[in-house]
Design goal:
Ammonium/urea_transptr; 64% helix; single chain; 2 domains; Ammonium transporter fold; mainly alpha
């Protein structure tokens, strides 16, 4: 018997960088956790009790629906062969041979890219839902999600992120979704809210969270999940990913503190919900710039993202009649559209040329330089060009989302009502799903008399009888 050991078979995937692949899959999972359970928990707890189930389920449904759309046609419409300068050709992302080959970015299988880009598409649709909580017909939402992902999201993704997209070629800097995700969701949500109509007057006047502690848990998942959101932007576990992660959290913390101080100073109370809004605007604002600005710039961006959206939401919104007319439940317009646009503009100011060279494989000296660095290096025209390109990208994303969201809503309302009936709006979850989030003391139910709950026996504790009787009505 020979003692020689047979040579191992050649590795057909020897080109895969296992560290990069592991990080990209981890980043994808972190972004996925922002939606499920992050936004499921956040939406389900920040709304009135009667809307908890429906709000959480809108997020869960969207996550599942987007995935099926994504692998059957959406991914290739966003990153496949060019059909037109702003859209790719529809095609399946289901074949193992193509999924195991190297994709358009990163030294790992295209399957990793499909999953990574899916979680971004999913969270965008879920963010749109934030503008529509508390009154949209769930069946209309079931139609809206696949239509919007197909005809709106893919246009922005291909235009900005695909190597063949016209805004990508023009030089728009959107590190990880300030335009494609946040500006898109903010404008689409606001537009859809206009067509769906407002909540009931009672819900608009008083819409208290049903569980603030759970709301903070969902917000925490959103914040920590942003490590993968922006950390996965370079498509590699490199130094730029590390900088992007640090800048993300620095900006978010700064923004939260600024918002909190403004609330405390002008309204005399440090609002927990306000702090969450400030956290979100900071995360959104840094997203288009995360890996291409220095950390001192991230602090400045946090100061501005904690104050400018605060002003538009808390002051300006109450003065402009059109903004008052549109019922944007979670203020997605301010936290995502305003903060995303702000981030895009500030990227045009603060983008550092050396960091841009790490992220963008381009030798074009007129691209990827913030205006402040353009002035410093006596390249003002290049800096002004970059700022102009950033503004052009904002206008394009706004146009696409207003137009396509309007068309989609008008088509859907030919099939089913966009808004729930007045009767269903009064009842909430039980009318829509036949389920309620909190059944305790609801519908006349009582605890059974056992040794564990004698404290709630009204006969033994008559002093609490009026309170408990009122709760049981």
């Amino acid at each position: 018997m020979s003692n020689t050991t047979a040579a191992p078979p050649p590795d057909p995937f020897g080109w895969v960088d296992h560290g990069d692949n592991a990080w990209q899959l981890t980043a994808s999972t972190l972004v996925g956790l922002q939606s499920v359970p992050g936004l499921v928990i956040l939406y389900g707890s920040i709304v009135k009790k009667k809307w908890a189930v429906n709000s959480a389920f809108m997020a869960l449904y969207a996550f599942a629906a987007v995935l099926i759309c994504w692998v059957t046609w959406g991914y290739h419409m966003s990153f496949g062969d060019k059909l037109v300068p702003f859209l790719g050709k529809p095609n399946f992302a289901l074949d193992q041979h193509s999924l195991l080959e190297q994709g358009f970015a990163g030294a790992y299988p295209e399957a990793t890219l499909v999953f990574f880009q899916f979680v971004f598409a999913a969270i965008t649709a879920i963010l749109v839902a934030g503008s529509l909580l508390g009154r949209m017909n769930f069946h209309a939402w079931m139609l809206f999600v696949p239509l919007w992902i197909t005809f709106s999201y893919t246009v922005g993704a291909f235009s900005v992120w695909s190597p063949e997209g016209f805004l990508n070629k023009l030089g728009v800097i959107d590190f990880c979704g300030g335009y494609v995700i946040h500006l898109s969701s903010g404008i689409a949500g606001f537009t859809a809210a206009y067509w769906v109509g407002p909540r009931t007057s009672n819900d608009k006047e008083r819409f208290p969270p049903n569980n603030i502690l759970l709301m903070l848990a969902g917000a925490g998942l959103l914040w920590m999940g942003w490590t993968g959101f922006n950390g996965g932007g370079p498509y590699s576990a490199n130094a730029d990913a590390s900088l992007a992660v640090l800048n993300t959290h620095v900006c978010a913390a700064t923004s939260l503190l600024v918002w909190l101080l403004l609330d405390d100073f002008f309204f005399t109370k440090p609002s927990v919900i306000g702090a969450v809004q400030g956290m979100i605007t900071g995360l959104v604002c840094i997203t288009p710039a995360a890996g291409v600005v220095q950390t001192w710039a991230a602090i400045i961006m946090g100061i501005l993202s904690g104050s400018i959206p605060w002003y538009t939401m808390m002051i300006l919104h109450k003065k402009i009649q059109f903004l008052k007319h549109v019922d944007d439940t979670m203020a997605i317009f301010h936290t995502h559209a305003v903060a995303g646009s702000l981030g895009g503009i500030l990227t045009g100011l603060f983008a550092e040329p050396r960091l841009n060279k790490i992220f963008f494989p381009s030798d074009d000296v007129d691209k990827y330089i913030g205006l402040l660095y353009g002035l410093k290096d006596r390249r003002a025209s290049a800096g002004l060009r970059q700022l102009g390109v950033q503004l052009a990208g904002i206008l394009f994303i706004i146009f696409v989302n207003v137009t396509m969201t309007t068309i989609i809503c008008l088509v859907i309302r030919l099939i089913v009502p966009l808004r729930l009936s007045e009767e269903d709006l009064q009842i909430g979850d039980d009318a829509i799903h036949g389920e309620e989030a909190y059944a305790l003391w609801g519908d006349g139910e009582k605890f059974e008399k056992t040794k564990h709950n004698n404290a709630y026996n009204l006969e033994e504790f008559p002093s609490i009888a009026p309170v408990k009787a009122a709760q049981m009505v």
